[in-house]
Structure formats: structure tokens, C-alpha cells
Write a structure and sequence with these properties.
There is one protein chain. By secondary structure, this protein is an alpha/beta fold. It has a single domain, classed as TIM Barrel (Alpha-Beta Barrel), CATH 3.20.20. It has helices at residues 16-28, 48-54, 81-86, 97-102, 107-119, 132-136, 140-149, 181-199, 216-223, 240-247, and strands at 4-9, 37-42, 61-64, 91-94, 123-128, 163-167, 208-210, 230-233. The chain has an eight-stranded parallel β-sheet. α1 packs parallel to α2, α7 runs parallel beside α8 and α9 (216-223) packs parallel to α10 (240-247). The longest helix is centred in the C-terminal third of the chain and has 19 residues, at 181-199. It is globular. Bound molecules: 1,3-dihydroxyacetonephosphate. Residues 9, 96, 168, 173-174, 211-214, 232-236 line the site of 1,3-dihydroxyacetonephosphate (13P).
């Protein structure tokens, strides 16, 4: 049985006090969430500590939206994996399309970051997804296959239990335009097959989340697909009620 996961990527939203209110709101509604669903939240760096304090004693995992590609040293403005661990993080989101698009994230830096994260005991939510033009050109499988092979094929198989993949078609992020459940399922099955090409049967156990305008009204249909194991949620993760409603959408 693969884990069912709903993860909130808060992106560059909330200041500290708002983040704590959101986390406390989530904590107060956890009784509504089935016990086999894992909840994860990734606040901005500045209030990861406060959010992890607000969620202390709950099973909600706290993580970061990025990390440095070096362990420590003279890298002004960067945040290391050890720093993240010291404020309560157990996972990191890597390869988000916004980081690839606006901050030059590429397979070189992602190889370094995934290595550092896994070696430090972190789970990694590794994001992949094609742009609209890739899909229109019929290149979406090639693009996603390459994003996977150029980084995840280099990871040590022993860490596959710590890997979560998120398929986020760029054209569906923050646009209100969701992939249909069959488009998403088709890509998730392709991702799993691609992972099986390197990791064999272990690929069966890797959770693959869908991300891109996932909300309470469409989560159930997406999560009912055989290869969709949950969601990586942006906008709808900023309201505790919506986030919890999505977490209740598994059959
Ligand atoms: P939205 O849910 O706001 O479309 O964002 C998805 C996303 O990018 C999560 O990482």
C-alpha cells in the first residue's frame, strides 16, 4: 500500500503570525482527517520554526520549499539542510517549476540538493511537469521523462522510500485550469513506469502527487485514479478548511 499524502506548498504567502494561525487552524481540525492520510506543510523559511512549534505533538510534517546545494559555508543568502533540520523540517520540496523558471534551478543543482537532503534523512518531494507549449507539441512525456532521468536516476536506491514525486503541469499551476483526471493518471502511470525502469519493483511504493489547481471540488476525482496518491496543493493550502477538505477526499 502506498502512502496517501496531501502536502501544502505555501509558496511566498503568509507572514509569521498568519502562518501560525493557519497551522493552528489545521491542527484544530485533524480529527476530521482519516488516520491513513499524511499531511505535510511547507511554509516560507522565516516561520518554519513557528509553524513546527504550532504543530508540535501532531503528525503533520513540516518542510521547506527549497534548500541550498552546499552543506555550509560562504553562500550568502542560502539556507542549508542542517539549518532546516534544526527548525523542525523533515522534508524539502525540490525542483518546483517556479524555481526552475524564475531561479535557474536545473538538474545540476537538483542532483546536489537531492543528495544532501537524502543523506541528511529528509524526505524529498521532487516536482516535475511540462509547460503548455510542450504539451501542445506532444513533448510532455519526453520533458517529464528527462526531468526524472537527469536527477532521480542518480539517487541511491536505498533512499527510494524517502522519495515523493509531484506531477505539476505548469499550465495548471495557479491558473484554475486542472489537468483532467485521465490526463493526470496517464502521466502518473508514465512516471511510475519510468521510475520502474531504474528502481524496479520499488517504484510501486513511491507516492506520486498531483499538483495544479487542486481544490476540494476536484480532489476526489483526481485521488480516485490508481496512480494518483494525493496532492501538492498551492492556493487551496492557504485555507485550513480547504486543505482539510482535500485531505478528506480519498475514497
Ligand atoms: P496551485 O494549487 O495554486 O495551482 O499550486 C500548485 C503548486 O504549484 C503546488 O506546488
Amino acid at each position: 500500500m502506498r502512502k496517501k499524502i496531501v502536502a501544502g506548498n505555501w509558496k511566498m504567502n503568509t507572514i509569521k503570525d498568519e502562518g501560525v494561525v493557519l497551522a493552528s487552524g489545521i491542527a484544530s481540525k485533524l480529527n476530521d482527517v482519516p488516520s491513513d492520510v499524511t499531511l505535510m506543510v511547507a511554509p516560507p523559511f522565516t516561520h518554519i520554526y513557528n509553524v513546527s512549534e504550532a504543530l508540535k505533538g501532531t503528525a503533520v510534517e513540516v518542510g521547506a520549499q527549497n534548500c541550498a546545494d552546499h552543506k555550509s559555508g560562504a553562500y550568502t543568502g542560502e539556507v542549508s539542510i542542517d539549518m532546516l533540520k534544526s527548525v523542525g523540517c523533515s522534508f524539502v520540496i525540490l525542483g518546483h517549476s517556479e524555481r526552475r523558471e524564475y531561479y535557474g534551478e536545473n538538474s545540476d543543482s537538483l542532483n546536489l540538493k537531492t543528495d544532501l537532503a537524502f543523506e541528511s534523512g529528509f524526505s524529498v518531494i521532487f516536482c516535475v511537469g511540462e509547460k503548455l507549449s510542450d504539451r501542445e507539441d506532444g513533448k510532455h512525456f519526453d520533458v517529464v521523462g528527462e526531468q526524472i532521468k537527469s536527477v532521480l536516476y542518480n539517487m541511491k536506491p536505498e533512499f527510494s522510500g524517502k522519495l515523493i514525486i509531484a506531477y505539476e503541469p505548469v499550465w495548471a499551476i495557479g491558473t484554475g485550469k486542472t489537468a483532467t483526471s485521465s490526463q493526470a493518471q496517464e502521466m502518473h502511470a508514465f512516471i511510475r513506469k519510468t521510475m520502474a525502469g531504474k528502481f524496479g519493483k520499488d517504484a510501486e511504493n513511491i507516492p506520486i502527487l498531483y499538483g495544479g489547481s487542486c481544490k476540494p471540488s476536484n480532489a476526489a476525482e483526481l485521488f480516485a485514479q490508481p496512480d494518483i496518491d494525493g496532492g501538492l496543493i498551492g492556493g487551496a493550502a492557504l485555507k485550513a478548511d480547504d486543505f482539510i477538505a482535500i485531505a478528506k477526499s480519498f475514497k
